[in-house]
Amino acid sequence: MEKAGSLLEPLVKRLGIESGVRLSRIRADWNTLFDKTLSLHMSPSRLSDGELLLNVDSPVWLQQLNFYKSQITAKLSAYGIRGVRFRIGKVSPVRVDKEKSPRLPELSSEEAYFIEGLVNTISDAEIRNAVRGAAEKSLRTKKKEQT
């Protein structure tokens, strides 16, 4: 029996949502990756071509975090991160409680139809739900970024 991850990986790549899925995983694990002091002063912002952009809340912390750049990159290498960059920006608190997370835009009927067509041939309910959830979140996030 194949693991769900090995089945989902080609699909995620084909949909072009690989970076979004990896960034979501990083955000979900953020509080466990770094101690509270660091995680309060930096947060993941954008992922592109294996490079993670981190927002930092002050110039002092930006300078301090540059000293730890290689250690931060090493901790994130399990997520396919090959490098990190820092910038001064809004540090978003990473939420553990999903009920308090900001609402994403609703999907159009065309988008919902696309997702159903995508998952209707997947017989395993757990994998089908995982793919549906990833596709919905990707489309909603992309829609929110465009507004």
Explain what this protein looks like in three dimensions:
There is one protein chain. The chain is an alpha+beta fold and 147 residues long. The chain folds into 2 domains: 16-94, GMP Synthetase, Chain A, domain 3 (2-Layer Sandwich), CATH 3.30.300; 103-147. It is 57% helix and 13% strand. Strands 1-2-3 form a 3-stranded mixed beta sheet. A hairpin with a 2-residue loop joins strand 1 and strand 2. This is DUF721 domain-containing protein.
Number of strands: 3
Q: In the residues, how many domains can be counted?
A: 2
- Order of strands across the biggest sheet? 1-2-3
**Sheet having the most strands:** 3 strands, mixed
Unreliable residue stretches: none
Structural class based on helices, strands and sheet pairing:
alpha+beta
End-to-end separation: 42 Å
Report the total helices.
Answer: 7
What sequence of helices (H) and strands (E) makes up the elements? Answer: HHHEEHHEHH
CATH class (first level) name of the largest domain: Alpha Beta
Shape: elongated
CATH architecture term of the largest domain:
2-Layer Sandwich
Here the CATH topology of the largest domain equals GMP Synthetase, Chain A, domain 3
Strand content: 5-15%
**Average pLDDT metric:** 81
- Radius of gyration using CA atoms only: 17 Å
Approximate helicity band: 55-70%
Organism: Candidatus Sulfobium mesophilum
Protein name: DUF721 domain-containing protein
Pfam families: DciA (PF05258)
InterPro entries: DciA-like
